[in-house]
């Protein structure tokens, strides 16, 4: 069995990582903004070891010093991109705050089961040093630095830049991006040094989406349409790939093989998966390879309900692609052995907006014969739909949480805000494909001591397939 950290943080290759130990605990940011509970967001440590007496329980909570931060996605101070450097340790979890623009640095190394706050980077440091705000995705770099994408400027306008933090002091070093061009919007990113490229995506203008989704904002240019291509060496924006007006391209994933010059991106509003790849002339292109049809409905905000693909990931062996349809309520597994023709091999419904007995009636459906039953597990009816997903290193367990973002949770799933989100586990058939809910696994964040919380992204202490990049 491979052991993480023998030659610096992480693993030498993605296939080595697949041989790593089974996850025993996971970290999730839990949000109270927009819930009516005037408490700080916190980092929850959850026991996921079936042999443990505290299995499926929150065993530690680390509250932040401030309220209304909107903790969102997290990342590491170092990962497999630093493999081979024995001076580096994966011992600090970086927690950017989407709304307050603070960045918290949490010590997970001293006691992984009881993390403690190490440092807070205040918004003013990001504003003054970078003229950026609304930090989102964190990736460590092979240089030892930490890079965080942003969605806006200090005034709440859209701006797709990148903040660099020192990997030891966590001081703001400045902007990563150079040159005259900066995308109007930002969100997620991934880099692939062997092809001298970084790719970033676009959600929306922070001041437009801060408190909810208004369809009128689509025609005002408030939401994203592009994959932005950067030169890894010069840090300059060199190309923008249009994947559809208002498509809202969110999570972007290269194949894990560092030689690969291709990957996938999930577009939320158009509910499409695009494959992007390097062309013969060295530029980059994208083509839609999966389309989730909208459903015609009554009793909802619009007559057509998209699936709303909000998270995607690729297994470490680059065999399967997974994604969640937050509104329709299903998680899908595709065989991507042929990346140009993904094949659906697994699907499971765990909630969503189209369940029987709810306010929404489906009047036309290209995929289902009838509306799914409400999802009930261990006596609890799950409100909301599947959102953030995380795969075990061996690919056999898929963890799912149901909160997207508190402003949108409140709008689309008000009952989830009242009753709290959940974390579920899906068993995966890694040979033929197939998904099945583990009926013995439920973490109910509706029973938290300070009141129902909205739990978001899932991280393993030893790294995972959405935090680690191999170079």
From TrEMBL:
<dbReference type="GO" id="GO:0008430">
    <property type="term" value="F:selenium binding"/>
</dbReference>
<dbReference type="InterPro" id="IPR008826">
    <property type="entry name" value="Se-bd"/>
</dbReference>
<protein>
    <recommendedName>
        <fullName>Methanethiol oxidase</fullName>
        <ecNumber>1.8.3.4</ecNumber>
    </recommendedName>
</protein>
<dbReference type="InterPro" id="IPR015943">
    <property type="entry name" value="WD40/YVTN_repeat-like_dom_sf"/>
</dbReference>
<keyword id="KW-0472">Membrane</keyword>
<dbReference type="Pfam" id="PF05694">
    <property type="entry name" value="SBP56"/>
</dbReference>
<keyword id="KW-0711">Selenium</keyword>
<keyword id="KW-0539">Nucleus</keyword>
<comment type="function">
    <text>Catalyzes the oxidation of methanethiol, an organosulfur compound known to be produced in substantial amounts by gut bacteria. Selenium-binding protein which may be involved in the sensing of reactive xenobiotics in the cytoplasm. May be involved in intra-Golgi protein transport.</text>
</comment>
<keyword id="KW-0813">Transport</keyword>
<dbReference type="GO" id="GO:0005829">
    <property type="term" value="C:cytosol"/>
</dbReference>
<keyword id="KW-0560">Oxidoreductase</keyword>
<dbReference type="GO" id="GO:0005634">
    <property type="term" value="C:nucleus"/>
</dbReference>
<keyword id="KW-0007">Acetylation</keyword>
<comment type="similarity">
    <text>Belongs to the selenium-binding protein family.</text>
</comment>
<dbReference type="GO" id="GO:0015031">
    <property type="term" value="P:protein transport"/>
</dbReference>
<keyword id="KW-0963">Cytoplasm</keyword>
<dbReference type="GO" id="GO:0016020">
    <property type="term" value="C:membrane"/>
</dbReference>
<comment type="pathway">
    <text>Organosulfur degradation.</text>
</comment>
<dbReference type="GO" id="GO:0018549">
    <property type="term" value="F:methanethiol oxidase activity"/>
</dbReference>
<keyword id="KW-0653">Protein transport</keyword>
